[in-house]
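Please fill in the sequence for the structure shown.

STRUCTURE ENCODING:
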C-alpha cells in the first residue's frame, strides 16, 4: 500500500453498522466513490473508519429516555440539541480525575488506527478525512501523541505515532470555536517527522 486514509465522523448519532470489510456506514459511500475515482490505483490505498459515537450515544439516549414521560415542551429541539451539542460538551477535556470520556473517545481512534496499521507498513503516509467535531477530536489525538513523541527521530512505529501524517482534510471543522480557550493558540506539528522529502513537500 502506498497510502493510508482514515475517515472520522462528526457530531450526531452514528450507527455502529459495518460492511464486510469492516468499514462503518457513515463512510461507506465516500470510500466507494473514492475507489471509483481512483480506478486501478485504488488497490494502493488502504481505508479505515474511525468510529467514536458509541462512547456518548448511550448516555445521550438514556437522558432522552428519562424525559419520555415528563411534561416537557419542544421535544424535537431538545432531542436535536442533546444528540448534537451533547457530543461536543461531553467530549471536552476536564480535570484528570474525571477525564474518562476524553480518553475513551481517543481509545476508539487508537483502535481504528491499529486496524489501519495492520493493512500498511509503518512508514506509510497517512491522510485523515475529518468531519465536524471529528476534526477537533483527531487534532487533540495528534497533539497528545506528539507530546509523547517529543524526540525528533522516528519512533519504533512512526505510523501509530502519527509521524507519517501527510494530510489532514476537514469538512465543516469547528476547531476555531475551541481555540478561544487557549492563549496563545499552538497548532499540531505538521507534517510528521518520518516522511520522505517528496511526501513532505506535498503534504497538505
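FILLED IN BY: designer on duty
SEQUENCE:
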Amino acid at each position: 500500500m502506498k497510502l493510508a486514509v482514515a475517515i472520522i465522523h462528526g457530531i450526531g448519532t452514528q450507527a455502529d453498522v459495518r460492511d464486510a470489510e469492516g468499514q462503518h456506514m457513515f463512510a461507506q459511500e465516500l470510500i466507494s466513490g473514492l475507489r471509483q475515482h481512483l480506478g486501478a490505483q485504488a488497490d494502493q490505498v488502504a481505508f479505515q473508519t474511525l468510529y467514536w459515537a458509541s462512547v456518548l450515544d448511550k448516555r445521550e439516549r438514556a437522558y432522552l429516555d428519562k424525559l419520555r414521560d415528563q411534561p416537557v415542551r419542544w421535544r424535537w429541539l431538545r432531542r436535536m440539541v442533546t444528540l448534537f451539542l451533547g457530543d461536543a460538551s461531553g467530549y471536552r477535556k476536564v480535570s484528570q480525575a474525571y477525564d474518562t470520556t476524553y480518553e475513551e473517545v481517543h481509545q476508539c481512534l487508537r483502535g481504528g488506527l491499529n486496524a489501519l496499521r495492520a493493512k500498511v507498513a509503518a512508514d506509510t503516509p497517512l491522510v485523515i478525512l475529518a468531519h465536524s467535531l471529528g476534526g477537533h477530536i483527531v487534532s487533540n489525538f495528534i497533539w497528545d501523541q506528539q507530546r509523547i513523541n517529543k524526540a525528533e527521530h522516528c519512533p519504533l512505529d512512526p505510523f501509530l505515532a502519527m509521524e507519517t501524517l501527510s494530510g489532514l482534510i476537514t469538512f465543516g471543522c469547528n476547531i476555531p470555536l475551541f481555540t478561544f480557550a487557549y492563549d496563545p493558540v499552538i497548532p499540531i506539528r505538521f507534517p510528521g517527522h518520518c516522511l520522505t522529502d517528496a511526501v513532505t513537500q506535498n503534504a497538505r
